[in-house]
Amino acid sequence: VGELVSFFGYVKERDPGRGTKEFKSQKKFLCLNLADKAGAVKLILTGATAEHFAARLDGDGSPVQILVLKNVRVFRRKDGAQVLLQGLPSTKVHLNPQIKAAKALRAWVESREIEEIQGITGERDAQAVERALSQAKGNRNQAVNIILDNKLS
User: Fold this and answer.
1) Can you say whether the dihedral through the CA atoms of 131, 133, 137, 138 is positive or negative?
2) Which residue has the higher pLDDT, 10 or 141?
3) CA–CA separation, 123 vs 131, rounded Å?
4) pLDDT over 90 for what percent of the chain?
5) Please, are residues 6 and 73 in contact by the beta-carbon 8 Å criterion?
6) Which of 98, 124, 133, 142 has its CA 20 to 30 A from that of 114?
7) Backbone angles phi, psi at 70, to 5 degrees
8) What does pTM read for this prediction?
9) DSSP letters along 75-139, please?
């Protein structure tokens, strides 16, 4: 706790979905739920750092955003319940790096997403799920709706 670390993973969830938002005393705030094969952690960003990250993520159209972060601070919430990461002005972000590990992580995330959609819809054909995801431009909920609409037709 208190140390600067690096992180390699993907953006699982984002709040807000685009840009930044006001939160308590912060005028610019961004919270990313990051994950890798081992689990998930929240990254809290404020101020100019939040704006910088939001602009980078908003400008990227890929459905799976892989990140390499350098110099993020590890801290524990005041109640001790959760360990979080904090982005600093010195934090560096590499978005969707072209390295083997990023490609492998992207493939793993996409296969899990296909499995989740198959579990929700009952669709056994992975190619049909991939087509629906493509048609929905990577939006999982829209892909589920497309598959379910096709089954009801």
Assistant:
1) negative
2) 10
3) 12
4) 56
5) no
6) 98
7) -125, 140
8) 0.77
9) EE-TTSS-EEEE--TT-EEEES--SHHHHHHHHHHHHHHHHHHHHHH----HHHHHHHHHHTTT-
